[in-house]
Amino acid sequence: MNDLYPYLGYKEVCQQVPIQFPPQHQPVQPGLETLMVPKPVFENPNYIGTGKLKNKVAIVTGGDSGIGRAVSVAFAKEGADICIVYYNEHEDAQATKSCIEAQGRKCLLMSGDIRGETFCKNVADCTVSTLGGIDILVNNAGVQFPQTGIENISTDQMRLTFEVNFFGMFIMTKLTLPYLKNGSAIINTASVTAYVGEDQLIDYSSTKGAIVSFTRAMAHSLVSKGIRVNAVAPGPIWTPLQPASWSADYITTFGSDTPMKRPGQPVELAPTYVYLASCDSSYVTGQVLHVDGGQSMQS
Q1: 47 among known catalytic residues
Q2: CA distances (Å), origin 108, targets 50, 82, 96, 150
Q3: CA nearest neighbour of 283 among 218, 223, 222, 225
Q4: Which of 32, 93, 105, 241 has the smallest CB count inside 10 Å?
Q5: Which residues contact 260 (CB under 8 A, 6 or more apart)?
Q6: In total, how many domains does the chain have?
Q7: Alpha helix (H) ranges present in 78-177?
């Protein structure tokens, strides 16, 4: 449980959560939550689940930290067992697992590279054999490599960004689909950059635009099977990916250009994923929900 500061209402959040962060940089992506100062707020201790996901099973890629951790813990509070898929951030993953198990739910950790079909198939098969099925897939893993212009984006960087952000999601969706059924849900993490663009994240923004289109196309493709497909488009959120992507100086003003003049915290996204995963959104498919501090309304 993150007790850096208590979960507060809208007015108090705007007044008391960090608006600026001390300079910091991590040399390797996707970054470690254990090294961040301050730590992201991933849990609302006043959030009491009502069984919206009782006995459901969810796969969450990038579930070890950041948005994925917040979503995983919220899902557990709603009664779901979780398979957390992560790259190699073992300490973060174990911390998230402890939070899930503290809610009385099961947690399976799967470490590997979602660019590989063999790994993704193993994730799907092990989730079914260990947790009993798959009801929810959250495609959340991603990387970003800021560059000052397209001339500085190598073909290898463009390929890597698409392989992780888009092809990894495509492969995971394809290989879990045989286990999904009527009532299942797929939720993809897009980004505000798909709508407003980001001049230093041309390749990343492009992958997120592809995710929006993929979400809409898959929603059409699977609606007859009773499987809903939606996405969430976060704005600047305080996650390990930020200090692992940007320079230390950039971090000091991260998120200050939103209408709310601050970045968001992972806990502020988690209820959106709960909504899209549960029957509360039974008439919602092919949609993208924006949780971005008002940034997309500027486009």
Answers
A1: no
A2: 23, 6, 11, 40
A3: 223
A4: 32
A5: 14, 293, 294
A6: 1
A7: 90-102, 117-131, 155-162, 168-176
In a domain, 15, yes or no: no
Report pLDDT for 122: 98
Report the C-alpha gap between 269 and 271 in whole angstroms: 6
Residues sharing a CB contact under 8 Å with residue 232, sequence separation 6 or more, in sequence order: 187, 188, 189, 190, 269, 272, 273, 276, 288, 289, 290, 291
CA distances from 143 to 48, 53, 150, 244 (A): 32, 29, 17, 9
Express each pLDDT in 227-254 by its tens digit.
999 999 999 999 999 999 999 999 999 9
Q: Which residue range forms the structural domain that includes residue 168?
A: 53-298
Mind listing the pLDDT tens digit for each residue in 75-95? Answer: 999 999 999 999 999 999 999
The answer for residues whose C-beta is within 8 angstroms of residue 111's C-beta and 6 or more apart is 86, 87, 88, 90, 93
3-state secondary structure of 22: coil
Q: Which of 204, 250, 273, 283 is catalytic?
A: 204
In a domain, 28, yes or no: no
In a domain, 26, yes or no: no
Position 20 scores a pLDDT of 77
Torsion of CA 46, 6, 37, 145, to 10 degrees: 40
Q: What are the residues whose beta carbons fall under 8 Å from the beta carbon of 98, sequence distance 6 or more?
A: none
Within a domain: residue 226?
A: yes
